[in-house]
Structure formats: C-alpha cells, structure tokens
Amino acid sequence: KAIESLFDELFDAFVVFDSNSDGKLHKTEFCEAIRNLNEPSLKDISDSVLEDLFDYIDSNADGIITLEEFLSTFTVDKRKGKAMRSNFKSLLQAFKRMDVDHDGRLSREEFRKGVENRLKLKLPSKILDEIIRRSDKQGTGFIDYEHFLE
C-alpha cells in the first residue's frame, strides 16, 4: 500500500509538473512547477538550487526529465542501491493480473487497464505511450515480462 501510494503521488506530481503534456519535463517547466507548489519552505529556494535539483534528476544530462528518471530518483534507496520494485513476486503477480489473455505479454490496452484498475492511475495517453515505448524493446507493440521488470 505504501509503495502504491508513493507511486500514485509521484505520477500525479509528474503529470502536474508536465504543463504542456508532452511526457517530459524541461528545466523551465520543472522550476516553475516547484515554485508554484503551495509549500512556503520552497518559496525561498534559489534558481541555482532548483537547477541543481533538475540536473540531479536528469540522470542522463540530456536537459529533459523523463517519467522514468523522475520515478527512479525518488524510488531508489541510494544507501542500499536497491529499487523498491525489486520484489519480483509482487511484480509477477501484477503482470499476470494485467495479462488478461494469458499470452505472456501485455498489449497497450491490457497495460492501460492494469494501470487504471490496479494502480488507480489515469495517465495521459502521451505518458502511457512513452512508458510502453520504453518498455517495448523489440518494437512489437507488446510488453513482455522481462521488459515489464525494467
């Protein structure tokens, strides 16, 4: 429950920050979103600190924060070097529940319904498409279990 709640909050934050709904956060978009948060302690943060935070999250230094970078920044225990998603049993169960036709792979529709029904997330199509595109390493239009874990 705590992990699902964290992911819900992170997905929601990313969607809110992504003001132009292109599935990416640019530096100005990110800094503006942080400034617009209703959090008094963030109002006095300098531009250079916000830019450093952006650069930290932008792990491949391409000037864009993807959903994957955003999530991995906040869901990895840096001290142990373990991602929270390392519980393979839970992921296998989630994958099997989403795989309605039991063919060992997820179609775009199966994945969308799984995210909406299981995780209670309503993602914009662009973000959903980006997740699927990154997970579909062979370009088949499907996500297999191995790539689901990535």
From TrEMBL:
EF-hand domain ranges (all copies): 5-40, 45-80, 86-121, 123-150
Molecular function in Gene Ontology: calcium ion binding
Presence of the UniProt keyword Hydrolase in the record: no
InterPro entries: Centrin_CML-like, EF-hand-dom_pair, EF_Hand_1_Ca_BS, EF_hand_dom
Entry keywords, A to Z: Calcium, Repeat
CDD domains in the record: EFh
Stored PANTHER family: CALCIUM BINDING PROTEIN (PTHR23050)
The protein's name in its UniProt record: EF-hand domain-containing protein
Lineage: Eukaryota, Cryptophyceae, Pyrenomonadales, Geminigeraceae, Guillardia
